[in-house]
Amino acid sequence: MRILIAVLLAMCFPVLGYGAENAAGNPEGKKIYDGWCAQCHGYKGDADSFTKDVSLPKPRDFTFGSFKFRSTPSGDPPTSEDLTKVIRNGNPGTSMPPWSRFSDAEVKAIVEHVKSFAPDTFAMEAKPIKIGTPPKASKELIEKGKAEFKAAKCVDCHGNAGRGNGEKGWQDDFKTDWGYGIAPADYTHGWELRNGSSLEDIYRTISVGLSGTPMTSYMDSLSDDKRWALAHFIKSLQLTRQLGLALKVKKTDNLPSKPNDPAWEKVDYMDLPIGGQLMFDTRDFTPVITNVRVRGLYTTKELAILLQWTDKKPNDGSDGKPTDSIRIQFPVKKHEATELPYFFMGTNKAPVNLWQWKASDMDKVFASVAKGHENVEPMEKSDATAMASYDDGLYSVVFKKELKSAKDDPVFEIGKFIPFSITAYDGRNGEENIRGAISAWYYLMMEPPTPLKVYVFPPVISLGVLIVGIGLHKKLRKNKRG
Amino acid sequence: MLKIYPIIAVIGLFLSIVAVLRKSPFFNFAGLLIFIYGLLKSAEYIMPALPAQVILMYMAMCVFSLFIYFSIQEETFKAFLEPMRAVLADDNKKFLRLIIVFAALPLFAGYLTYVKVKPTYNPPVSARIVHPEPPSQMDFKGKTMNVLGLENPLRKDTANFAKYVEEGKKIYYQNCFFCHGDDLDGKGHMADAFNPVPLPFRGTDTIAQLPESFVFWRVSKGWRGLPAGSGPWNSAMPSFEDFLTEEEVWKVIMFIYESTGNKPRSW
Asked: Are A414 and A249 in contact (CB under 8 A)?
């Protein structure tokens, strides 16, 4: 209903394009822009800026006159509301944050100044498309969307599972009008969808496309109900991110035999947000892996840890670029106190144990002991093992190790919180050694089997109270009669 | 927010008044206990909340003293026990008996036992000290400096102030904004990855509380310079002496003060 009213209102007051009289920009807007936008978008709006080499995706060049995030038909400029929305909400997964500090009048002034960088583009009249009431989600609708996802060739770029790993998306000519490469969106990562992750956002993106990119408008080629079905299907792919500090690892009789075994899906998970390694030279300002999902299981003998992350284009190092890889880190010794080794590769005083898996050696673990990032010694012997799979854009790597530990091994004690951290490498992004995406310290805890007393004591006490109640009842009845 | 505890207190008081009027010491007892519990919990609206342990102790004392009060006269005590006796024995209380004595009480006792015996596991907590104690001396790329009383040499060159701030801005956006944020609010696009999360520079409780010398020490030495109590092993703050010159560190400090409208502490 609210959307209907909004649409009706929008039809009553069409948003007019700004004419040449605004081309000079807005002095108030310029002041704020120079202070808070120019660092990335450039003082001249051409994205020749401080952050051009340290951000990915790169900041938008406004002078080019092509704007990805619009509510208007393909080829039209964005409306003032579209630009306002980007400033207010930011673009998830990029370095464009939501700006809430500025007043509406200030944002309006910024928008006018931004428009002045591309006067020709904004000389046109811009009118948002109509967005009707979305149909309710249903199994059938999602199935229909899934069929459409194949039929409309979305899979060619976005991949079967929507992780952005489609064949076509990784050909050399897959570029933006700005001239640089671009990765198809990973629909499972709702938190980094640039144009928003709500159903309406997805519908709008499918309908009008993203200007300047290979994502075209499907307004004319797909009917309205097909676009809604697609939006519902794409929305259904989004992962539910579970952030936390500690992963509880449950006991099992048998570990799943493969890393992509469906049995893993029933196991509790924790998501680790990861960011570039920024402490040591050479720093990684532009990591592309943003999330690693961790699961764990243990038996009387072994601990198994499953790490899963999206990599849109797998890389085993055979093309001259580094291999994709992931590494898990534990303190070498048992850490009773809260004092830990340094979260990235330890220090001389407090070494860490590293297990690294590489796509170039699928079933091997490179175990080492690190005493700081410049002091890494491969371990001669380690009984840690790995198995891995790559399915539709998703790497799954299981590390396994016996619970008993030798010298320089981490100590896996049941019921204790064992610190661990992760480094993930996307070889195609040139990541290796200390350039990679890293996590903070987290904990995993092998949950001891529930003690017997938990099952025994409560019923016994309940029964006891019941018996006392019945006893008192009987006694008082007898007294009454007697 | 609906304030539930004062409401509980009022209900308890009401119950005990009705009980006095109807001469039922048991419900008077129950009403008073509910009233006191409500009051104790309501304290959190005007002062720091009382710890659960303290409330438990107060309640135990109240139960004990009220029990003495109601059992001191034989007549009152008999009346006090009457509702319990009635629920246990009277023919017309069959339904109530079934619910309270044979179901609710045993289940509640079982539940309490379960809560008591169930093992709970909590990860270790690491405290964060926002303003750790700086050392009296520090080493910047081999050069020894006194932290206390260290002054920003660029501040004296007032003619070039704007130039230094602008140069500081460039340094900030090539080294700091990933974590400390585009808007210097601590919400950079990589901030989520780290724990503890990066500090904001806006507001009055971070750099506004500090002299520039302290900030110079934090920026230059980063995680390595933190005392053990501040958890250097968790900090992702780089030692910027590895990447920046002394002058560049001062410039970026000028930028973070200037752009947030904060002034370095000078007292």
From this structure: no
**Could you give the ipTM of this predicted complex?**
0.90
Please name every residue paired with A298 in a beta bridge, in sequence order, or none if there are none. A251, A303
Q: Which of B114, B185, B223 sits opposite A279 (nearest CB)?
A: B223
Is A282 touching B (CB cutoff 8 A)?
Answer: no
* Fold exhibited by the domain A246-446: Immunoglobulin-like (2.60.40)
Contacts of A40 in chain B (CB under 8 A): 173, 182
Can you tell me the distance from the alpha carbon of A85 to that of B111, in angstroms, rounded to the nearest whole number? 51
Task: Please tell us whether the domain made up of B137-260 is placed in CATH 1.10.760.
Answer: yes
H or E, element range at B254? helix B246-260
Instruction: Return the residue matching tokens 């208007």.
Output: A72
Contact B242, A281 (CB under 8 A): yes
Chain B contact for A23 (CB, 8 A cutoff): no
What CATH number was assigned to the domain covering residues A2-122? 1.10.760.10
Residue written as token pair 């198809």: A184
Q: Is the pTM of this model over 0.80?
A: yes
Q: What is the pLDDT of residues A8-62, one digit of tens each?
A: 555 544 444 444 344 456 899 999 999 999 999 999 999 999 999 999 999 999 9
3-state helix, strand, coil in chain B (%, to 5): 65, 5, 35
Residue among A330, A324, A323 at smallest CA distance from A296: A330
- Any idea which architecture A139-236 has in CATH? Orthogonal Bundle (1.10)
Binary contact (B234, A440; C-beta < 8 A): yes
- 10 Å CB burial of residue A179 (0-12, 13-18, 19+) is exposed
